[in-house]
Amino acid sequence: MDPGRYHLYVTRAGYATQEYGEGSSAGSNAILTLNPGKNISDLIFRMVPYGVISGRVTDEDGDPMADAVVMAMQSGVNEGRRKLLMVQTTVTNDLGEYRLYGLPRGRYYIRTEYADRQSPKNMRSTPDDSTLAAQTAYLPIFYPGTPDVSRASAVALSPGQELPSVHFRLIPTRAVRIRGRVFNAILGKPAGGCCVYLKPRDSMVESNTFAGPGELFGPNGAFEIDNVVPGAFFVVAAMFIERSFRQARVPIDVANSNLDDISLTISSGVELVGRVAIEGREPFDLSALRVGLAEAESDFPYVRPAEVKADGSFKFTDVSMGSYEVNVAGQPPGAYLKSARSNGEDILNGKLDVSPGGSRGPLEIVLSWAGHQLDGAVTDEDGLPIPGAMVVLIPSGDRRKQYRLYKSASTDQYGKFILRGIAAGDYKAFAWKDVEYDEWEDPEFLKPFESKGVEVRAEENEHSSLALKLIPSAAPKEQS
Q1: Buried b / exposed e across 416-441, counting CB within 10 Å, b at 16+?
Q2: Does 286 have pLDDT greater than 60?
Q3: Is the CB of residue 79 less than 8 Å from the CB of residue 403?
Q4: DSSP for 40-64, written as a single string
Q5: Which of 80, 135, 330, 336 would bridge with 289, disulfide CB 3.0–4.6 Å?
Q6: Distance between CA atoms of 367 and 340, rounded to whole angstroms?
Q7: How far is the first Cα of the chain from the last one, in angstroms, to the nearest whole number?
């Protein structure tokens, strides 16, 4: 094998994938450094079976709920916002039983929802003010039985453990009906073959299930969604038009009354052109890069990446109206994204507004080889090296929310780390063991460790070394 720094994995059917230096938290591992002419032997991996979480879902009378969706989720942080991220999903059988298997050790939030749009068995037949029968539906709930995510309790799953009694009892609540129409402005007629569904608004839950799919019918692109429980949602219409994915959405607040006349319009996208340049003398094939746009608060946040030509030019042919962040994939290890501008305005530290009155380019993106390099070692209080520590470099001051500036790396078997492509500025360096990946983006997590960070001043085209002491990690949180 060539000398270098490697990740080493061991896999086996029925067993959790294990990485060299793996700790007790998700994403913890150690880098394996192979030096020229040196052999490494006697590495030992102790494989453990996957874990299982199982249980039963019943209705208010204790009868089994077939086809209820059950999800295993884990707490994570993305750009400072804590979310519950989907790990695995399943449905109950005719006895109301479910089994989530193939789970690695960790802390899981279990959630269930009854996705069938049929009304519960106790649906009332008394007409309401719309001359339709009043509707009831089952609220999604978290274990141990709450619809409030802040009151949910995580279950701790040990390596190879089976937790067999994570049960749910669903209780019906008042529900309403939503009606509306979707218009296809591209073809100038009502939309056909369109999927309409609800997505919770301002939710901590990132899941692939929806509050209820709608179904288009009639000649006017009409849709109807029944049995919607109270809450704040987006109504989303999505479809493929001329080989491109299109969507539209509107926010709604569901209370105790039916909502009619919801209107969504699917419009054509716009063309964006731009160019990427790289500062520095070292040659680089720009065609290895891809430019992407990430839309805030979207169900499908990433526009198809634009290929970059050898001269640095690129083009997006179909960008929907919205607000976007720019990112570049395929950057060489020592480079960093220095600037991004549209019509002379900075969009790297802001947003690209694609709207009838907003900017549509050209985009000017500059990468730089002049990134700072920081290396060093992590030791404990006795001066012993710590393999598998997570070293994190976090920008200081008003740049704290610029998450593209964050850098992280694991230490190798000698406790050493390397961070490359650091933009110039002031930072703090931290070193933890068994910290959840990206946990440090949560301001509440970082607050008690702030004074333990080591200040770093990064200069362009400079290299510095740093000796870090391991910081004891915080205890895991019971609630999200």
Answers
A1: bbbbbbbbbbebbbbbbbbbbebbbb
A2: yes
A3: yes
A4: ---------BPEEEEEEEE-TTS-B
A5: 330
A6: 9
A7: 43
Task: Tell me how long the chain is.
Answer: 480
Pairwise CA distance, residues 190 & 348, whole Å: 38
Compute the Cα dihedral for 459, 461, 467, 471 and give only its sign: positive
Cα 40 versus chain centre, distance: 37
pLDDT at site 211: 39
The residue written with tokens 């990064």 in the block is 458
User: Is residue 26 within 8 Å of 437, Cβ to Cβ?
Assistant: yes
Question: Angle at Cα 362 formed by Cα 286 and Cα 236, nearest 5°?
Answer: 100
Cα–chain-centroid distance for residue 358? 27
CA distance 89 to 323: 31
Indicate the pLDDT class of residue 361, thresholds 50, 70 and 90. Answer: low
Other Cβ atoms less than 10 A from the Cβ of 262: the count is: 18
The continuous run of DSSP H or E covering 445 comes out as: helix 443-446
Please write the tens of the pLDDT for every residue from 389-434.
999 999 999 899 888 899 999 999 999 999 999 999 999 999 998 8
Question: In this structure, is the dihedral angle defined by the CA atoms of residues 276, 279, 284 and 290, taken in order, positive or negative?
Answer: negative
Q: What is the DSSP string of 417-437?
A: EEEEEEPSEEEEEEEESSPPT
Q: What is the distance between the alpha carbons of residues 204 and 85, in angstroms, rounded to a whole number?
A: 9
Q: Are the C-beta atoms of 465 and 141 separated by less than 8 Å?
A: no
Please write the tens of the pLDDT for every residue from 208-253: 444 344 455 556 788 888 888 888 888 888 877 766 777 788 889 9
Structural contact between residues 353 and 279, judged by C-beta atoms closer than 8 angstroms: no
Burial call 48-69: b when 16+ CB within 10 Å, e when fewer: eebbbbbbbbbbeeeeebeebb
Can you tell me the distance from the alpha carbon of 94 to that of 342, in angstroms, rounded to the nearest whole number?
Answer: 56
CA distance 305 to 286: 14
**Distance, CA of 257 to CA of 132 (rounded, Å):** 12
SS3 of 450, please?
helix
DSSP state, residue 439: G
Q: CA-CA distance, 18 to 12, in Å (whole number)?
A: 9
Q: In angstroms, rounded to a whole number, what is the distance separating the alpha carbons of residues 412 and 161?
A: 30
Residue 240 token pair: 């493929």
Average pLDDT of the chain is 84
> What number of CA atoms fall less than 13 Å from residue 96's CA on the CB side?
20
CA atoms within 13 A on the CB side of 193: 6
